[in-house]
Every structure is written in structure tokens, then in C-alpha cells.
């Protein structure tokens, strides 16, 4: 193909396809009804995925002439796997940008133009043969996803051109395929005019990233299947209008028969097929079309929902005049009804609560070229963690994902492949794309049509989304009207009209991104006209998702609040090797990519390698479909589900005290949806003093498609104390035996020491520092620089960096590293030794630190902070202690098992837990504050022989145990940059500022979770040997 024609195609927004067939549903077709009913792999299909010959060149001008011709030899070319990104196969480099177009700063490129010097192009070539049973039939080439544009040839004959990376391009290749060996060639371009419409917040890569197949068609073929399924008669009767569009020959004498099966497809397990409806009819002919149409009516229907994803199986046969089957096709059908009434979103007549996530198709190894294995893992993980909805941010996903959501039960907001956020920076919003520009109209309408026509039959889809962050204008409004006119069964979503209310009619929702809970409530309590939806919220970058409960609680108070989609599901981190050859998870900039937005791509509640993030603990709890309130003699269970009675669960309960179990039990649960059920139990407290925890859990009663029996989905706890009775006539605590005094206080020239049975505790007189804690022959102070000392600093989280905390609060870093000693007093107080130090922290703030060591070596520590006005907030308040690495076995009684923070602890459960320092290191791609445990009662740290210390406080406290100091964490941008650790770092905190999560580019933690430096604080704890 002449290079000038290629350039013309790539730069013309009105030329986005050539020879592409009309968009159609994603159903499969078969040669027999049995195959269709079973949903087998298509026999009339040949996969071209696999190994291709490949040549990578810097731009289209460098493509070898006539490489697509049969006589051209690819000898010396490389090979590449399909599907895959070129960049992850060793060609070029992946580039991560948020809103910037990838060529920004490299070439001056006007809208719809493309870079002239650098437009990486891949030349793909392979050969294929048709199996015998496909020969002589009409043939189609299906390319499920190619980024971002391509030309295609077969045997040197031009097939066509296509843009839109995330919907199929289908071509008729009947006349181009011959017997024997066939050569297919693709010229794939990184950039085209379509790139202006694909400015999503993700890695910029190219290539054939989804499957390629050749499919054979019978003489008469069901080209499209349109099933409009709904509910009637009080949501008890299933109705559907089915329209088939056919092409080929013989329609005049052919007829269509159909059968509807109940119970063939369910999430739990296949049931026996049972045909409940059947019929047949003729095909209607016009000059240009052949169609068949029939209706389904199912009394006492089992409706589809995410809770009970009941699917029927519709099997259709096309027969010739003698009754022989020409083709059979099948489609799963779910009967459900989506409505908006009085600004409330309803599903099957019940108000819908969306507990959702935004989900990129992504894998740390494959990028967006994921396979069935990753999708199946994702669907099970979502179900196990109470996530009931997904927004396909920001492009249509692979068809198999919708099939899984149909089967397992996930509500889907299907989003058009459209984002032009980078055009907002052109200076004037009336220049944003696609805006009102006529030359972009057909391109965006084509993208909307491609998504709807492919996905329309999936019951999981409850809403069509026009796109993401593309401002507003006539073109977007026209897209929304297309959705409404083509499909009246689903509402239309778009967020950006909140910036330009002239286009209010584009969306059926009041959709927002990153509104605070206060802002959301302000809308909800002022006569809302539309359902309120947070299409993106709780920005989960690094250590985040604080105050998530403030959002979920709005669901209880405002029926007009639909809920929302957390941003986002998975870290977009990619595997890369460091200088030693070890793999690590990389982010923007690590591949030499510029411009880039560094680790802004890592906002997942799971990591790029699909390891769950500690944030998942909070999400799972706040999204749980049951609330459990365990009491002494009953458990109140609030079923938040709309349709399911909970009979697939067992209710399990347990009464314990600091890990010791006193009572337990279980029963099969059954409680009506939307109701509170009271289940008898026996968790009456014994007389033995102490703090008791009642825990009730909902676990799967039997194996399911997404989890084994015993998998916990929900839990609730209550805490109650039994106080120790006071002895008559004696104050509490008096009468207890005190240890015999066997200590010596040694007041040296530079040191002040306390020596007793098996311990030596030494302080430096000049600074008041604890310079030795010698216990049973082992030293617990790793070095003098990192002994037990006041701590005001933490390794900044991504949210901290976003709100400039490191710059704003830098004085507290200095106060942690270099506090100014004002006075030290070392004295004997009766049998005890006391060391008191006063620190000047700057700008009027003072710290008084008091150690008191008693006869048995118990060290009581009191830290008193005197605040001052006009100081930045405290990142934390407490103490840090670096111990030798032998002391690494940690047990605590508090919230666990994952890390918890003041604003992210609802999902933690009270119990006795164990951890190793390295296990406290959360897999946040950029090292930062992590591993904290809030609401701790006591914690122990021991060596392998059991020697160690126990920390207790009269008040709840926080702690972490890691291999690194907060300063070492702060200095590393990747985990491989962290130094070799030879120590255990213990942080004991009275409190620390919450992690926040409203957004990661300026939002603070909410005020009640911020430590006010103007207020006085006190922290007391004891250190005793165990």
C-alpha cells in the first residue's frame, strides 16, 4: 500500500474503517443443536493466535514494501506471540501517562494529526490452512482487539482497515482465502487519529492484544441476535422479544425453531436441561434483509440478579425446507428489569446498592492482553470479597468477561472506548474532543454502536456509559441518545456534564468523581433529581482507602444514593528486572518512558501480580451483604441482600478471650432478604475476669463456583469485659505481692544504669537516651543511633505526597531525627530508677519523656507532648526502637490480621495475631508507611528462643514491626532500592494521622483523623520481659 494512503488513513478522523462488517452480537454458532445447548467451542473456527513472524519499525514509512505479498520472504524476522503487546514482547517500551498524550513534549501534534517521526509499527505475518469442514463456506476474519489501528491483507489482497482498539473488527475474507497455505499480514500502528479518543489513564502500548480467528459461516447464517429480556406482572413473569438478522442464501424457504431451557446455566453448578418453551416460525424477507422475530413469556420466572444469577439457555436452529439444520446458535438469557423512579435506581423492583470497583483488564506480565485464567481469577475474587459491580474503565472488555459476569453474578457498567482528557489542556474547553466537531461525530458514534451491538444480550449490563473524561458537547449527547433509542432497558451514564450543565441530558445519573462524603450528602439532601453515583471514589493509590465507611454509610440514609466504584481494582504495574536480574513491579518512568506519571498507575485494591492489598480487608467488610451483631444469647443478622435468603451460608460463632476459645457453634442460616433475623446462640460470659470477644461469621455452607465450603464472606464482633472484683475493704490492686527488690542503680560519669536479675538497662546521662537494654544475655538496642526515641514522622504515603505533607510537615522529620535536649534528670525514686528528658521541638513545642524502671526490670515510659499554635499537623506521635533482627517473632492482641489505621480499621477484627517483620511490609509498589496495627491492647516481640519483651498500655495504642525505619522507606522509590536489613524496627504510637483516600492529589485525611499539633498529648506504656 502506498505510504501516502497509509498516512491519509491514519490522520483522517472521518476515516476509521474500511470494509469492516456491520457490528453484531457476540454469540457463537454451531452445526448441531446439541453443540449449541452445551456451549461447546466453535467447530467452525480456526484460531490464529500463537506465533507470528514479526518486524518492528519506527514508523509506517519504514515498512518493507510488499511485505504482505505471498512471494515476500520473512526470513530473518523475529517472532512474536499473539495476543500480546509489542512493547512487552521486547519491542519499544511501554509508556505510562495519566492525561498527557504520549507524544507530548516530543513532537508538536495538532488534534487528529499523529507523530510523524515516531509512530512504532509492527508488521505481523503468519500462514494458516483451513480444516476440511470449513472449506467451501463463507469466511470471516475476527480481530477482537488491535491497538490502535491496522491494515490487513490475505494472500496479498487488501482486506481492510480499522480503528477502535477494544471492539472486534470483522471482515469478509471468502474471496481471499484459497486452498492450502494462506498468508495473513497486518500492519499495526501505535498512533492514528483514533489515538486522540483513547487517552485513558493507562500504559500506552500497541499490538494485536486480543484473539484472532477465522470463522466459517453456513449458507444461511444468524448474523445478529437481539434479545430484549425483561420482567412483567410484578416482576414475576419473564418476557423477551427476540429478533434475528440473517444473511446468506435460502432464507425464502427456511424456517427458524427455538427452545428455551431452564437450569442449564447457573453459578453454583449445571443442572439438568429442561425445555420449558419452544416454537418455530418463518423468516421475513425484504429487499435487503432477512429477519425472524418471536416472543418469550415465562410465568413464575427466576429473575437474574448478581445475588441469584439465574440464566436460561435459548437455543435456535435454522432449518431448510426439508428440516435439515443449517445452523444452530445459543445465548444465555437473564430476565431482569432496570428502572429509575423518583431518582432511585431499581433492579427487579428493589433499590440497588452498588458496591463496585473500576476494573482495567490488566496483568503484570501481559498488560491488557489478559487471558481466561486472569478473568476467572478476578470473578472469583470479586465474589469472595463482596464486590457486586464493575465499571469497565474505560473501554469494552473481552466478551468472555461479560459471560463470566452473567454466570457468577456481577452488575456491569459497560463503558465506551472513549477518553480525551488530554485535550482539556489545550487551553479552552470548547476545543476538547469530540465536543461539537462534526468530523469526530461518526467516529465516536461508531464506538458506541460497536459496544452496544456486541454486548446487548448480556443481562449483567445494567447501564451503558458514554465514555470517560471527555468533557461534553453535541457528539457525546448524540451518543447517549443512540443508547436510549437503541435500548430502552438500560439507563445511560456519563460523568463530565457536572462541568458543563448545558448537556445535562447526556446522563441519567448525577455522576461524580472523588466527591467527598460531605459533598455527596449535600446533593442527596437537597431534593435530588437523579440517582447519585460515584463512578470513581476512594482513590486506592498506595496506602489509602481511609474513611471508606463514610461513603458506604450514605447508602443507609439516602435511597437516591446508588453507591459507587472504587478507583480501582488492580495496580497497573509491570514486571521488570533490576540490575541484578531480579524481577520487580515497575511503574511509569521505569522503562525510560517520558512523559510519564510515575506510580499514579498503581491504585489497585489488589497488586499487579494479583496479590490482595491490605486495603482489601476494609473493602470486603464494608461491602459485606450481611451485618452481624453477636450478643450473649442471640445473633442479630441483617440481610442487606435484595433477593437471596442466605440459605447458602452457615452462621458460625465463637466466644474467646485473648485467643482462648470459651464457646463456639454454627447453624445453617436462612433469613429473608432485607430483614433482620435473630439466631439463638450461647455466648454468655464466664466469671473469669478479662476482655471477651464475640465473633459471628457467614461462611459458605457448600462448595460453590467461586469458593470452597467454609470460605468466610462476612463477620461481626462485639466486645465485653468482666471486671475483677474488688476485695472488701481493700483498694483495687492493694494486697498484690510485689517483687523483692534486687536491683542496683549505678550512677556513672556518663551513664545511668539499672541492673537486676537477668537485665541491665542503661541510659546516656547527657541525652537521656536508652543506650542498652540487656536481657538474659542479649542486647535489644541495635545501635545508639536508632535506640528507643520519640517519633513524629512516618514514611509519606502516596496520599501524603499528593497533599504536600512531606514539605508541610518537614519539621517533624527533624524533630524525630534531631530533637534538641533541654534537660536530663537521672534520679532514684524509692526502689525505682527514673530518667526524665525535656526536648525542645521547635516553635514552642516541647516533649517530656520519662522512663521509670522498677525492681523486676519493668520499664514504664511516659511521653508528654506540649503543643503550640501554628504548627503543621503531626504525622504520628509515639516512639521507635530498632532491635536486632533476632527479635522478629511478633504476637499482638488487637486488630488484625492486616494492617489497620484510625480511618481504615472497620475491617480489622479483634484477636491474637502473629506476624514477622517482613510480612508487615505491604506490597505498595512505592515503599511507604505500612504495617500499622490500631487498637492494640498488648504486643510481644521475641527471638527464636522465646526471649523478648511485652508492651502494654492503659489505653489502646498502635504499633508496627518492619525491617526498615520510616526514613529508609521514604528514601526508596522501589522495594529493590531498600537496603539489606539487619534489624527489626518497632514503632509504638499513641496515634497517627489517618491514611485518607478521597483522592491522591491534594486531599488530606479527614479532620477527626488528623493529629492537631496545637493540642497536648500523652502516651504511656510499659516494657516488661517475657
UniProtKB/TrEMBL annotation:
PROSITE patterns: GLYCOSYL_HYDROL_F2_1, GLYCOSYL_HYDROL_F2_2. One of its GO terms (cellular component) is beta-galactosidase complex. It holds the Pfam family Glyco_hydro_2_N. One of its GO terms (biological process) is lactose catabolic process. Residues 753-1024 form the Beta galactosidase small chain/ domain. It is an enzyme of class 3 (hydrolase). The keyword Acetylation does not apply. It catalyses: Hydrolysis of terminal non-reducing beta-D-galactose residues in beta-D-galactosides. Keywords: Glycosidase, Hydrolase. The keyword S-adenosyl-L-methionine does not apply. Its EC number is 3.2.1.23. GO terms for molecular function: beta-galactosidase activity; carbohydrate binding. Belongs to the glycosyl hydrolase 2 family. PANTHER family: BETA-GALACTOSIDASE. This is Beta-galactosidase. It comes from Mordavella massiliensis.
